[in-house]
Amino acid sequence: MSEITGVTVLIPFRNEAIHLPFIIDALEKQIVKENIEIIWIDDASEDDGRAIVMTAANRNSQWKCVAREGAPGKKSAL
Predict the structure, then answer these.
(1) pTM, two decimal places
(2) How many CA atoms lie within 13 A of 15 on its CB side?
(3) What is the per-residue burial (b if ≥16 Cβ within 10 Å, else e) of 14-43?
(4) 3-state SS string over the chain?
(5) For residue range 12-48, what is the model confidence (pLDDT) as tens digits?
(6) Do residues 23 and 53 lie in contact, with contact meaning Cβ atoms separated by under 8 Å?
């Protein structure tokens, strides 16, 4: 069995600007940054959620923010 060297976490969000600062703060406090990549997926947010995530991604080199492609909804975002 091979050893796991890292994990990618996908976090879809839509219109969650009010909750994102708390989620980001919790993740920044808990995660070992060398072993985890976080990809935030903006599912056509109409609030400041994308800007909040982009600011956090600028502080965390293993974080990315992308826009979803295709039909709206969590399935498409993932």
Answers:
(1) 0.81
(2) 4
(3) bebbeebeebbeebeeebeeeebebebbbb
(4) CCCCCCEEEEEEECCCCCCHHHHHHHHHHHCCCCCEEEEEEECCCCCCHHHHHHHHHHHCCCEEEEECCCCCCHHHHC
(5) 999 999 999 999 999 988 866 678 899 999 988 899 9
(6) no
Q: What are the φ/ψ torsions at residue 44 (nearest 5 degrees)?
A: 60, 45
Backbone torsion region of residue 15, taken as left when φ is above 0, otherwise alpha when ψ lies between -120 and 50, otherwise beta: left
Compute the distance between CA of residue 47 and CA of residue 27 in angstroms, rounded to an integer. 21
Note the residue count of the chain: 78
